[in-house]
Structures are given as structure tokens and as C-alpha cells.
Prior knowledge:
Structural class: alpha/beta
CATH architecture of the largest domain: 3-Layer(aba) Sandwich
Strand content: 15-25%
CATH superfamily of the largest domain: Glycogen Phosphorylase B
Radius of gyration: 21 Å
Number of strands: 13
CATH class of the largest domain: Alpha Beta
Strand order of the largest sheet: 3-2-1-4-5-6-7
CATH topology of the largest domain: Rossmann fold
Low-confidence stretches: none
Mean pLDDT: 92
Order of helices and strands: EHEHEHEHEHEHEHEHEHEHEHEEHHH
Number of domains: 2
Shape: globular
Distance between the termini: 15 Å
Helix content: 40-55%
Amino acid sequence: MKILHILNELKFSGAEVMLRYSADFFHDRGFKLYCLSTGETRGEYADKLKREGYTVFHLPFRKSIGYFLQLYNLINRHGFDVVHIHSERGYFLHALIAQMAGCPCIVRTIHSVFQFSNLLRIQKMIERGLVRILFKIRIITISKSVQENEAKRFAQRSTLIYNWVDSKVFYPVINENEKWELRSQYGINENEFIIISVGSCIPVKNHADILKALKQVLQSCPNVLYIHVGTGELLEAEKDLTKKLCIEDRVKFFKPTEIIRPVLAMSDVFIMPSDYEGFGLAALEALFCGLQIIAYSSSGLNELLINDFGFSIPHSYIKLGESICYAANNYADLIKLPKEYDTIIRNIYNKEKNLLMLLENYKLNYDAN
């Protein structure tokens, strides 16, 4: 069976990371995996997917007959059994072309809490309804927040299959010695209190708030060190802000790494001040590595912070700074991940369980058509 995933530019982002770490599951079951990047460039993550056995195509999205003819020919020529659409852009037309090309199973995963309003909201509601009715497409959402938003804003029913984390890849340090050894590899002292964020440098992530909070934090907690892992359109602006705030010696910018676990495991607190998240996969990876979480109160993040584990705070860099100071000054007394919570998250966000659910949805839709 052949599966084609349609995405935007292939970036170091939640959907692409999960595709990468699910490759072994599908290869072991005899599936052939393909990805289509519809961005202006293939994207920085394309080579990582290729190394995991994906065949990667690149077809820049255009609202033109030429683009859709090329897509039709691609799907028709390769005879894909499943076309799995991840991108919102061009969703209706991608589904239409997949249907016309004879694909027996079309699936859509919605990864974000889309806030479309007014006429655009009505348009998206109509598109979603037509796709579901005409093409018998199966809709998957990645969190309760996304599922509830789709139902309330677009009257769309969906199947909830949570994002997942591979516990063989993301896990806490075995002991303090491992933590210090990891830090020594990056030239970081044992006495540093490391706060870390992971993700694209884009407006919705609010990384500037972390930098502004850090400026005030350092007045009372000079041992706090901030590490950011990621790139994006605002990276240079964020670097400039560190210089403007005179905190560049307390900030380290890392490019996305092949294996993120060592950087997470050597850190103390994970920061995610996003305006909103479809889910917050990076925060879940941090949880699996045993980190405390400080996050802005928002959809997609609040459902991770249960049983008083982590800080859900108002959208304010001042509040963020206060929370970082509290964590730094009281780290030894902070609640460690309770065993019952650890069991909960490792069950809900279990890789094998959720991929089996996805595979079952593929089969149900395939058989129905």
C-alpha cells in the first residue's frame, strides 16, 4: 500500500517530526511512504524524511490549472492507495484532485485551531461539508482543542487521534551525572538554570516575550540561561533583540538538531508562550524528558498541564518572568512528574496505540470506498 502525505514546505514542525518517527511503524507493515511539499521550496526537513525512507516530491502550490494537472498526474501515475492531506491551503482542491485521480482513501488531519471568521469562516464551513459528503473523506484532529474548535466553528465532526511521542526517543536523564555530562558537551556549567524553547521563530510563538522576561529575570536570577532551538522568519529579529536588551551572553540559539532529546534532557524548564497551539508537540516532548512546563494559557497547551504539573499563566512577559524566577528559586521543591501523570501521558500519547488508530482509519475509509 502506498501513502502520500501532502504538506506545505517541509519544516522542523510537529507534523513532519511525527511522520519521520512513524516511518518504522509503516515500513514494518509493508507500506511505501511518500511526501509532497507544496511550499516554494522543499523545506529543510525534506532530507530527514528521505533518510527515513520517504520519497519526497516538490510541487509549489499555485491556484492554476497547471498545478492541479501536475498533481492529478502524480497521484494517477503512482496509484496511491491513501492520500493524507495535512495542509489547510488548497484542502478542497487537493481532495477533489485525489478523488478524480481514483484514490480510494482520502484522509485529512487538522493540526491547528483555525480562527477563520466572517465570510472566510462560512467558506471553510461549506468546503469542509462538501469534502466530507462528496468524497467521504475521514477527518482527524490532533487534540481536544482542535476537535472542539472544528465542531463549534465549522460544524465539522472528526475523529480524535492525539499527537504522540516516541518514549524510546524522548525520556528523562537517567541520573544527575548524565545531565552534567550532556551540559559539558555543549560547554555549559552545572550551576546554570536552563530554560529552553523549541519551535519555529514566527509571530504566534512569542519568543520575544521570553527575551523580555529574561531581561527582568537576570536582575534577581543571574544564573538563568536561555536556549532556543529552531529557525524561522523572526530569528534574526530575535537575535537583534538580545543585543538590544544586552542579554546576548545569556542566550544561545541552536539550529534544529537531528536528535533534540539531549538538549531537552540537560535543561530545567521548558517555555512555550504561544498565542495558541493545535497541540504543542514540543511541550509534550519536554514532558517526556521530565521537564517542568511554563506556558501561556491557550488552547492546545492547557490540556497538557493537568494535576498542577507546570505553570499555565496569562499572556504577559512580566508574568512569564515571575514564573521563571519562581521556578529558578524553588526548583528543588517543584512538583516532579507524578507517577500517575506519567502513566496517563504515556498512555494517551502512546506512539504504537495512536498509529494503530490511524491505520484503522485508513482501512475503514479504504474499505468504505
